[in-house]
Design brief:
Number of helices of chain B: 26
Strand content of chain A: under 5%
Number of strands of chain B: 16
Distance between the termini of chain B: 47 Å
Order of helices and strands of chain A: HHHHHHHHHH
Number of helices of chain A: 10
Shape of chain A: globular
Radius of gyration of chain B: 27 Å
Largest sheet of chain B: 6 strands, mixed
Strand order of the largest sheet of chain B: 7-6-5-8-9-10
Oligomer: heterodimer
Shape of chain B: globular
Strand content of chain B: 15-25%
Chain lengths: 181, 743
């Protein structure tokens, strides 16, 4: 990431509105993309991206430039996305008697749309079917082209752990995709 | 699966975001940004939240460990800060009620946290803070080494503490106003600076506000403290978009998150005395269910049926049953028979057991290990921060020669603090302050470590206990629950007990936690607010931590001459076999110092309408008995022997904490214990019956006829008693909420 990001971020941290606007504008698409890779559904990804933007507005104040801005922002996106996904899973676990509640609730943790599904569906589906941490490691390392160390920083774990998750993920994917034919 | 194939992921197309969504997101971001800028308080608060050692967040040095976790923890900082402010208000309120130690707790935090090597600007001047905090602490309280909790018995001391406390407030307020420089702000609750929206909007705040309104025992300071706490609540409500969103997610929209796991339990059925005259169960002093129910109702939903355990709801409330005089008879059973309010033809057999209260000088030495889940899901004001606050309070309750060790577990487990004497309290508090969330949960390893520490420091005469604080499952590691349970049970036999403090909602594995606590001779409490944590860990510290009797079992034999049917209300998960009663190898619940345990049976006296028809065949023997006794127990002739006047025979078995052989206590339940009307029964009995009715209604009660929430309210209202902590008032509120809760 260019130094421009960090400078903008530091200005924004100091309260500069224009810098913050530029920064969010610059990053929105990438945030959205990462969110989509995690969620596999456009509306959900948009929700996550918006949450991230709102969080950034306050979080930016504490940005000190100690880390690369990109790592920092991926970290926020990552935690927001995983939180959201977790919330989504919970929704599916609801018992039939709670369906009224679901009907009342805003439709958000949506199913992938047909368009979403058409885009590399098999592999994505298999990846998203992994255990959360394996999934995260694959998405960050292979989807976002991060190094193991970067992914570790985003996921908040050891580099070795990322490597291990990847190893396990590959094993699991092999089995899943073979089974699928 | 090769790398090459996986690398395809990178190039796979991603659908474009809609322009509308993007515009909306950017607009929302700018609104949030402006909200943050406009508000000078926000900026100050934030700087403080980071710099302020008092804020219960991880201290700054932890935040700086890795840049990645830094952002992760900072995000909810505002939220935590806000809620902590509310928490601080609770400490203050509690103080107003004549329990001086809570404030000491807060002071303690300031004092110990301040000198920490907080990175950057702050470290320039930790000294002034310390020196300022110290006089305030040491003047009124004798010395940090004297656990302030004991002062709570002594109102004079408590008051002295309070004066110190309020003086401290003034000082810090003054500082807050005069010196806005972010460096070394005195870690005060910031009452004076705030004045934003001093409205208590949220239900949580409302509830706390309620507690503020509880009758003041110390009018002298109450006004000021109430004001203080209101200001604090004001902080909590000075919200930004971000905060609202997060709070909304976690507090008011839980339907989506409900992955809480509860064991499916069948309600105890009605039993025929002729077929099954004996009922046996283990006592249960857990209270987790009540907190769960409360949380759900406060969020406007009905709790899951399986989350409702009637006995835990009843036992949540302190009752003032007559206590035994000495520890030799560790508890006393008080029996009352009253008509059932929901069915006048039936009667209730109310058994109220009060444990002997250990005076603090007799209190055994405590060897405690806190086992704290610091996995990623623990972040948030209602989870790790709550746990940390709770443990800080507990540490302040302990005696100087008690020891505390801390083990954390997440992706891997580690010892955060080797067992340390409470005399070195600041070291313990500093270790608690440093804890931060991140990683996944490997519960089993952590438990191993915790028990290892407890063993290393084992005190045969003392209380050895692991206190596990977690929001959920053991995600990684030993997933075999049976193995885990076996392990805990084995350790119990070596004298180390387990208590569980559950926090958070959405992922809480109630069934597992119950099982683990039961196997470990411990209690499981679910904690959702700091007030609750205080109740569990501080008010009831002695009862939770210091058992006076273990393996307490109750057996009731109903007299077929007087009683035709009965059912036990609640205790479904605690049923024992009849023969288990006399078998000392069979584990049962503990009673702690000062604990009260209540069990209620509903029974149908002879002659009253029954639910179960008599048998046409095979009931000969029982029928003969019936003929003899005539219509109804009241008509029984004296020549049937004196047992004819007994409804039932109550037997209790218990072991003293260090003994393996049980002792038997028996009490006949006679007509002399009967009250003609429920209104004649003691207040505590009436209130517990109201709670029992409420619990049954929440579970969907097949036996309550037309009894309604309004009836519960009427009955509970008539039995509020002193209610110094507002528990009963809160209960009434919950019943009202239940009337309008979504199913």
């Amino acid at each position: 990431m260019s130094d421009g990001d960090k400078e903008l971020a530091l200005k924004a941290a100091g309260g500069c509105r224009v810098s913050f606007a530029a920064l969010v504008e610059r990053y929105y698409d990438r945030i959205y993309r990462l969110a989509w890779r995690f969620s596999g559904a456009q509306d959900l990804a948009e929700d996550i991206a918006q949450d991230v933007c709102v969080k950034l507005a306050t979080a930016i104040r504490s940005f000190r430039g100690e880390a690369a801005f990109s790592t920092w922002i991926w970290r926020i996106t990552y935690t927001t996305a995983t939180d959201k996904l977790r919330a989504g899973q919970r929704m599916h676990a609801v018992e039939p008697s709670k369906i009224v509640e679901l009907a009342d609730a805003s439709p958000d943790a949506g199913q992938p749309s047909p368009e979403d599904a058409a885009m590399g569906a098999d592999l994505w589906a298999a990846v998203r079917g992994l255990a959360p941490q394996q999934r995260d490691a694959v998405l960050l390392v292979y989807g976002e082209d991060m190094s193991h160390a970067e992914a570790a920083a985003v996921m908040g774990c050891q580099e070795k752990t990322v490597s291990w998750h990847l190893h396990e993920a590959k094993k699991r994917l092999r089995i899943t995709l073979q089974a699928a034919g | 699966m090769s790398d090459k194939e996986l690398e395809k992921l990178k190039s796979l197309p991603v659908p474009e975001p809609s322009a509308k969504a993007k515009a909306a997101a950017l607009a929302a971001a700018m609104t949030a940004f402006d909200a943050a800028s406009e508000n000078t308080f926000e900026t100050i608060a934030e700087t403080r939240a980071e710099k302020n050692p008092d804020a219960p967040q991880e201290s700054a040095d932890v935040i700086r460990l890795t840049h990645a976790s830094q952002t992760k923890r900072r995000l909810p900082m505002r939220v935590r800060h806000g809620i902590y402010a509310t928490a601080a208000s609770i400490a203050v309120v509690a103080l107003g009620l004549g329990t001086g130690m809570y404030y000491t707790g807060t002071l303690r935090m300031e004092e110990s946290a301040a000198p920490e090597p907080v990175a950057g600007k702050l470290s320039q001047s930790p000294e002034p803070v310390t020196s300022e905090a110290k006089p305030a602490l040491s003047q009124p309280a004798p010395a940090p080494s004297a656990p302030a909790g004991r002062a709570s018995a002594n109102s004079g001391k408590g008051k002295a503490n309070k004066f110190g406390a309020s003086r401290k407030f003034e000082e810090s307020e003054a500082d807050g106003v005069a010196d806005m420089s972010p460096a070394a702000q005195p870690p005060a609750p910031m009452g004076g600076v705030v004045g934003l929206k001093q409205k208590a909007e949220s239900k949580r705040a409302y509830r706390r506000d309620n507690i503020v309104a509880v009758p003041d025992l110390n009018g002298l300071l109450a006004g000021r403290e109430a004001e203080q706490s209101r200001n604090d609540i004001g902080i909590a409500d000075g919200s930004t978009v971000e905060r609202k969103r997060i709070v909304d997610d976690t507090v008011t929209q839980p339907p989506r998150e409900n992955r809480d796991q509860f064991e499916t339990v069948k309600i105890n059925p009605v039993k025929q005395v002729s077929a099954e005259p004996v009922s046996t169960f283990s006592i249960d002093v857990d209270t987790a269910s009540y907190a769960f129910v409360r949380r759900a109702l406060n969020a406007g939903r009905m709790p899951q049926k399986n989350a409702v355990r009637v006995e835990e709801m009843i036992n949540y409330f302190p009752y003032d049953y007559p206590a035994p005089e000495t520890a030799k008879t560790p508890f006393k059973a008080n029996v009352t028979v009253t008509p059932a309010p929901w069915n006048p033809a039936n009667k209730l057999l109310h058994i109220g057991i009060k444990g002997y209260e250990i005076q603090s000088k007799e209190r055994p030495h405590a060897n405690l290990v806190f086992l704290i889940d610091v996995s990623g899901s623990m972040q948030g004001a209602d989870r790790l921060e709550l746990v940390k606050n709770a443990f800080r309070m507990l540490v302040n309750e302990l005696k100087p020669d008690d020891t505390v060790g801390i083990v954390v577990y997440a992706g891997s487990s580690g010892v955060a603090l080797e067992p340390t004497k409470v005399a070195k309290k600041s070291k313990i508090i500093a270790a608690i302050d440093k804890l931060g969330a991140g990683g996944s949960t490997a519960g089993a390893e952590g438990i191993n470590d915790a028990y290892r520490l407890a063993e290393a420091n084992f005190d045969k005469e003392g209380v050895n206990r692991v206190i596990l604080a977690t929001d959920g499952d053991f995600n990684v590691g030993i997933t075999n629950r049976e193995e885990l349970k076996g392990f805990i049970e084995h350790k119990r036999k070596t004298g180390i007990f387990l208590s569980i403090l559950g926090v958070g909602q959405g992922n809480y594995n109630d069934a597992l936690m119950q099982k683990l606590a039961q196997n470990g001779n411990g209690t499981a409490a679910y904690v959702d607010t700091l007030n609750e944590a205080r109740k569990v860990l501080v008010d009831e510290a002695s009862s939770t931590l210091f058992p006076i009797a273990k393996d307490v079992k109750i057996q009731v034999e109903f007299n077929p001459v007087m009683v035709s049917e009965y059912r036990l209300i609640g205790y479904e998960t605690r049923a024992l076999k009849r023969e288990d009663f006399n078998n000392d190898k069979v584990d049962a619940g503990d009673i702690g110092s000062g604990h009260t345990v209540t069990a209620i049976y509903e029974f149908t006296p002879k002659g009253a309408p029954k639910l179960i028809d008599d048998l046409r065949y095979g009931g000969r023997v029982a029928a003969q008995g019936e003929d003899k006794s005539g219509e109804g127990g009241a008509a029984a002739k004296p020549d049937n022997g004196k047992t004819a006047y007994e409804y039932a025979f109550l037997k209790l078995r218990y072991k003293l904490p260090n003994e393996d052989k049980s002792t038997l206590v028996t009490t006949p339940v006679t007509k002399a214990m009967e009250r003609a009307k429920i209104s004649d029964a003691p207040e505590d009995v009436r209130f517990s019956v109201a709670v029992a009715a409420f619990g049954q209604l929440l579970r969907g009660a097949p036996y309550l006829k037309d009894y309604s929430y309004d009836d519960v309210i009427t009955l509970a209202k008539s039995a509020r008693g002193d209610d110094p902590f507002g528990y009963r008032a809160e209960f009434l509120n919950l019943v009202r909420l239940a009337k309008s809760a979504r199913p």
